[in-house]
Write a structure and sequence with these properties.
five-stranded parallel beta sheet, two-stranded antiparallel sheet, alpha/beta
Length: 118
């Protein structure tokens, strides 16, 4: 599967799920210092570092719940970094319907004025 085939969710649809109280795990794939500056409210940070230890990242990813929707985001307008990590999750046997990339990432979320935190 290619990164353009990873299912996407819009910021509007994600916000609706959050407002309805759906169980969603939001994952910020940006560097820790950027995450610390500002991120989607409630998001956890798992930095996508292609040069990092793949075993360490795999251990972190396998600790994520398999029964909740996982939404990954980055700063990329093409969602490339979050989509690559979504593919990694799928290779770890996460359900294809439970792993999505946020379309247009953090940029779009902020444009819409949705909640962020520092």
């Amino acid at each position: 599967m290619e990164i353009n085939e990873v299912p996407r969710i819009t910021s509007e649809d994600l916000k609706q799920l959050i407002d309805k109280g759906e169980k969603v795990v939001i994952i910020d794939t940006r560097k820790n210092n950027i995450y610390n500056e500002e991120h989607i409210k409630g998001a956890i940070n798992i930095y996508y570092n292609p040069a990092g230890d793949p075993m360490e990242r795999e251990m972190t990813l396998t600790a994520l719940p398999a029964d909740k929707l996982l939404v990954l985001y980055c700063d990329c307008l093409d969602d490339s970094e979050s989509a690559i990590m979504a593919l990694e999750l799928r290779s770890l046997r996460y359900d294809v319907d439970k792993v999505m990339a946020l379309s247009q990432g953090f940029t779009r979320w902020k444009e819409l004025g949705y909640p962020t935190e520092k």
